[in-house]
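Deliverable D2.4 — example input (C-alpha cells):
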C-alpha cells in the first residue's frame, strides 16, 4: 500500500502504539477544533452518520464544526490531529480492526495525533431504530461524546441537546464499548414513517417530530441485533383451523369452543393448551415457515433465529376443559372464582370478562378486576404448554428454542412445573398504572419464581409508558426494576409504547432511554444528569419533578379504578383512564392545586437563570403542563355537558374549551411537546372530540369554534382556577400573580414575570 505524506503521522502513531507508547490526543484548542474527521471513501450508513454526529457536536461545543473528509480527500487536511471514524485504511495500517468485537461492539483508541473510533458494523443503507443492525462505529462516537465531552440528549430536538462549551479537549483513550442488550426496543404508538396529521396545522411539523424522535432513539442505542418473530402468535389460528379442529381452542363455561362475541375474527381466541395434536401442529407450522424463511434469506448477516413462539393472543387463558384444568396447580382461588367453578353465576359477557379472569385489565391496566373476582393463576398449564411445544419442535429442529409469555392470568410463577431451560420467557408485568412499590414487589417475586422454575433467559416487556400525555413519573421504580431484571437474566427488552410525551414526562422518558444502554445506571445519577442541564434553575425544576412524582404516587389501583368507573361515558369501564382513553379521567387525576404549584416551580426556575437556553428548557416543561391544563378543562366541560345535554350553553362551553386547547396545541406543534397525532386520534375515537382530519385542515386555516377574550388585568390576590366559561364568546381566566397569560386570537402564550 502506498500512503500519501498526510498519512505519515498515522504510521508513526501505529509504531508508537506497537511500542507501547501512548500520547494524548487534542481535539479542541484555544476554543477551536484542531482535529478534522476522516471517514472511509465509501462509508456505510453507520460510519457516515457517526462522522456527521461527531462533527456536529464538536461544532456545538466550540462554535466551529471540524471538516469531514473522506480518506481520498485527506490530502486537503490542514488539521494537526485527526479523528479516524470507521474502518479506514489508516486504521488497518495501524493494525486496528473490528474483528472479534461482539454485535454493536465499539472501540476508541488514541495513537499520537489520531483518535480511532470504530466498531462492528452491519447496517442497511440507512440507520433506523427499528431495524436489525450492528452499529458499532456509531456507538463508538456516541460513547466518546458522552464520556469525553459530557453530551446528554434529554429529549428529541435541538433544545434537548446538552453540549457543554469547550475551549480545550485533550484525551487519552483505549476503551472497548460495553456489551449492550441484544434488543433495546421502544416502539412507537404511531408509525414513524407514515405520518398523517389530525390536529396538526402543518404536516411538516409532524414529520419533523418523527425525524427528531428517531434520531433521539438512535442516540440512546435503541436497536437490536437479533432477528426473530415474537409477540402474540396465534391471531390467525381460529381462521385457519377453527372449523376443522374446534377442539384446539378454549372451552368456555357454556360448553362451546369459540371466540367471545365481540371477537369477530377470532384474533383473540385462546387455545386448549393441553391438546397434544395442537402442539404437533404448532411445531409443524412453525418449522415449515422457518425453513422457507431461511431458504429465502440465504447468507444474510442476521438470519431468522430458530425460536418458536408459544405466545398466546392478547387475552387471558380461557380454557375450562378437564385436561387443561388437570394441568393447573391446586389453588383455592379456583373454587372462589365463578368463571372456573362451574357455578354458572358469571355469564359470558363481551365486556369485563378479561378483568375477571386475569385480575388485571389487559387492555386498560387496572389491577384487581371487578370486586368479588380475585385473579386465578394458570401459569402451570402454560409452563407445561411451552415445554410440550418445544419438545415437538426439537424433533424437527434440534437447535430450536421455545418462546413464551408470563402474561395476564399466567404472570405469576408456576407452583409445581419446571420449565425447560430452552424456553425463553417474555415477562410482561401485570399492569402499567398505577405502578407502585406493591406492583414492583409483585413483579420481582414472579420474575424470581420463574427463574427458580428453570428459566435462564428473560425478555423484559413492560407497559409502563403507555399512559397519557400528562405529567406522570414512575421513573424511580422503573429504573430500579430495570436494574433488577438486568442482573437476573434479562438479555433483551421491548417497551410498549412510545407515546411521545416529551414535555410532560421528560424525566421518566429520559430515565428509560438512559437505561437502554446502561441498565444498572442509578436513578439518582440519571436525575442529576437531567437537572444539570438546568444550571441555576435546577433546584426549582427539581421541586417540579418532586411534585409530579408525588401526584403520581398518590394513586392506588383501587382509587384509580374508581375514577375510571366514574368516567365511562358510553364506553366500557376499562376504557376510561386506560392507554387508549387516558384523557377521560383528567378531571379527577389532577386537582387545581397541582397546576398552581407546578407553575410556581417553573416560574421560579425561569427567574433563577439568565441563560436563554435554560429558560427555553424550562418553558418546554411548562408547555406540557399548559397542554394538560387545557385538556383537563376540555374534559370537565364535556362532563358538564354530558350531565345535561339539554343545556346548549354547556355545549358551547365545551366547544370553546376544545377550541382553546386546539389552538394552543397548534401554537406549539413544532416544539416537540407531544405526539398530537396520537392524542387527537384517541380523543376523537374514545371521547368523540371533534378533531379535524388532515385533509380538512391543510391548505386553509383551521377553523375552530373558539372564544374571544374579555380584556382584563389579573389581580394579584386571585388564585389559579380552571377556565370558567361565561358564554360562548367570553372566557375569564383567573391567573397566579407570578405568571401572565396573554390570549391573542385564542392562542395561548405563557410568559414568566
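Example output (designed residues):
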Amino acid at each position: 500500500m502506498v500512503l500519501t505524506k498526510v498519512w505519515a503521522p498515522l504510521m508513526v502513531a501505529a509504531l508508537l502504539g506497537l511500542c507501547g507508547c501512548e500520547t494524548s490526543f487534542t481535539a479542541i484548542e484555544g476554543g477551536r477544533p484542531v482535529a478534522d474527521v476522516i471517514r472511509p471513501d465509501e462509508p456505510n450508513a453507520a460510519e457516515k452518520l457517526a462522522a456527521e454526529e461527531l462533527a456536529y457536536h464538536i461544532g456545538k461545543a466550540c462554535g466551529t464544526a471540524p471538516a469531514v473528509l473522506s480518506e481520498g480527500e485527506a490530502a486537503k487536511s490542514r488539521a494537526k490531529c485527526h479523528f479516524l471514524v470507521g474502518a479506514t485504511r489508516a486504521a488497518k495500517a495501524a493494525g486496528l480492526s473490528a474483528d472479534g468485537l461482539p454485535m454493536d461492539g465499539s472501540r476508541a483508541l488514541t495513537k499520537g495525533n489520531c483518535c480511532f473510533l470504530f466498531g462492528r458494523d452491519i447496517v442497511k443503507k440507512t440507520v433506523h431504530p427499528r431495524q436489525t443492525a450492528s452499529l458499532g462505529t456509531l456507538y463508538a462516537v456516541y460513547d466518546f461524546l458522552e464520556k469525553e465531552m459530557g453530551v446528554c440528549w434529554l429529549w428529541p430536538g435541538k433544545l434537548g441537546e446538552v453540549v457543554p462549551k469547550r475551549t480545550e479537549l485533550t484525551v487519552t483513550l483505549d476503551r472497548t464499548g460495553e456489551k449492550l442488550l441484544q434488543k433495546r426496543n421502544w416502539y412507537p404508538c404511531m408509525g414513524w414513517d407514515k405520518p398523517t396529521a389530525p390536529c396538526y396545522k402543518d404536516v411538516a411539523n409532524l414529520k419533523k417530530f418523527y425525524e427528531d424522535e428517531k434520531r433521539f432513539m438512535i442516540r440512546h442505542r435503541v436497536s437490536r441485533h437479533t432477528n426473530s418473530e415474537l409477540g402474540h402468535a396465534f391471531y390467525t389460528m381460529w381462521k385457519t383451523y377453527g372449523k376443522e379442529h374446534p377442539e384446539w381452542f378454549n372451552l368456555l363455561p357454556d360448553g362451546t369452543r369459540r371466540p367471545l362475541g365481540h371477537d369477530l375474527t377470532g384474533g383473540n381466541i385462546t387455545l386448549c393448551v393441553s391438546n397434544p395434536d395442537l402442539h404437533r401442529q404448532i411445531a409443524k407450522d412453525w418449522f415449515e415457515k422457518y425453513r422457507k424463511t431461511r431458504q429465502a434469506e440465504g447468507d444474510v448477516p442476521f438470519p431468522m433465529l430458530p425460536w418458536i413462539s408459544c405466545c398466546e393472543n392478547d387475552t387471558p387463558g380461557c380454557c375450562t376443559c378437564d385436561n387443561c384444568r388437570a394441568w393447573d396447580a391446586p389453588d383455592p382461588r379456583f373454587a372462589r372464582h365463578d368463571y372456573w367453578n362451574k357455578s354458572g353465576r358469571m355469564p359470558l359477557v363481551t365486556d369485563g370478562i378479561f378483568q375477571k379472569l386475569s385480575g388485571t385489565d389487559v387492555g386498560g391496566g387496572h389491577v384487581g378486576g371487578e370486586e368479588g373476582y380475585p385473579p386465578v393463576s394458570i401459569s402451570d398449564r402454560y409452563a407445561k404448554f411451552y415445554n410440550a411445544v418445544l419438545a415437538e419442535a426439537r424433533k424437527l429442529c434440534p437447535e430450536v428454542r421455545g418462546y413464551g409469555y408470563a402474561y395476564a392470568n399466567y404472570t405469576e410463577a408456576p407452583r409445581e412445573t419446571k420449565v425447560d431451560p430452552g424456553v425463553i420467557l417474555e415477562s410482561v408485568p401485570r399492569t402499567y398504572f398505577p405502578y407502585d412499590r406493591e406492583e414492583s414487589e409483585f413483579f420481582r417475586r414472579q420474575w424470581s419464581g420463574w427463574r427458580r422454575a428453570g428459566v435462564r433467559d428473560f425478555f423484559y416487556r413492560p407497559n409502563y409508558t403507555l399512559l397519557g400525555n400528562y405529567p406522570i413519573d414512575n421513573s424511580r421504580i422503573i429504573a430500579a426494576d430495570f436494574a433488577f431484571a438486568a442482573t437476573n437474566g434479562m438479555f433483551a427488552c421491548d417497551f410498549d409504547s412510545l407515546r411521545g410525551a416529551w414535555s410532560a414526562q421528560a424525566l421518566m422518558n429520559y430515565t428509560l432511554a438512559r437505561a437502554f444502554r446502561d441498565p444498572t445506571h442509578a436513578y439518582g445519577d440519571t436525575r442529576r444528569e437531567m437537572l444539570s442541564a438546568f444550571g441555576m434553575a435546577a433546584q426549582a425544576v427539581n421541586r417540579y419533578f418532586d411534585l409530579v412524582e408525588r401526584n403520581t404516587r398518590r394513586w392506588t389501583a383501587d382509587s384509580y379504578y374508581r375514577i375510571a368507573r366514574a368516567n365511562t361515558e358510553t364506553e366500557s369501564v376499562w376504557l376510561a383512564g386506560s392507554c387508549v382513553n387516558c384523557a377521560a379521567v383528567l378531571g379527577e387525576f389532577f386537582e387545581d392545586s397541582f397546576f398552581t404549584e407546578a407553575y410556581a416551580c417553573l416560574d421560579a426556575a425561569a427567574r433563577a437563570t439568565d441563560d436563554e437556553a435554560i429558560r427555553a428548557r424550562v418553558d418546554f416543561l411548562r408547555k406540557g403542563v399548559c397542554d394538560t391544563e387545557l385538556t383537563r378543562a376540555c374534559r370537565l366541560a364535556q362532563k358538564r355537558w354530558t350531565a345535561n345535554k339539554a343545556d346548549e350553553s354547556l355545549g358551547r362551553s365545551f366547544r370553546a374549551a376544545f377550541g382553546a386547547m386546539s389552538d394552543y396545541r397548534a401554537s406549539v406543534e413544532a416544539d416537540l411537546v407531544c405526539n398530537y397525532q396520537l392524542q387527537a386520534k384517541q380523543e376523537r375515537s374514545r371521547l368523540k372530540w371533534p378533531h379535524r382530519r388532515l385533509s380538512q385542515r391543510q391548505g386553509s386555516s383551521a377553523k375552530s369554534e373558539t372564544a374571544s377574550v374579555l380584556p382584563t388585568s389579573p389581580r394579584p390576590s386571585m388564585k389559579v382556577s380552571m377556565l370558567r366559561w361565561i358564554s360562548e364568546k367570553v372566557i375569564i381566566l383567573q391567573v397566579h400573580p407570578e405568571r401572565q397569560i396573554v390570549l391573542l386570537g385564542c392562542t395561548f402564550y405563557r410568559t414568566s414575570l
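Residues 19 and 27 are 24 Å apart (CA to CA).
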